[in-house]
Specification:
By secondary structure, this protein is of the alpha+beta class. The chain has 2 helices and 2 strands.
Length: 63
C-alpha cells in the first residue's frame, strides 16, 4: 500500500483515540499480519495460539 490512508475508509479513531484499521484496509493489504486486529477478515490466521482461539471465540460471542 503506497497510497495515503483515508479516514473512515482505511481507518478510524476509536473512543479512546486509538487508530483502528478497517476491514477495507486489511482486504487491500491482502493478508493477516498476526497482531490480532479488530477488523481482520482472515480469521486471525497468523495470530499465534492460544490468542487466536480466544479471539475467534470472543468474535463468535459478539455475533
Amino acid at each position: 500500500m503506497d497510497s495515503e490512508l483515508i479516514e473512515n475508509v482505511d481507518f478510524y479513531y476509536d473512543k479512546d483515540g486509538f487508530v483502528v484499521l478497517t476491514q477495507n484496509y486489511h482486504e487491500t493489504r491482502g493478508y493477516c499480519c498476526g497482531y490480532g486486529c479488530r477488523h481482520c477478515p482472515y480469521n486471525y490466521e497468523s495470530v499465534p495460539e492460544p490468542k487466536r482461539s480466544n479471539m475467534l471465540a470472543q468474535q463468535q460471542q459478539q455475533q
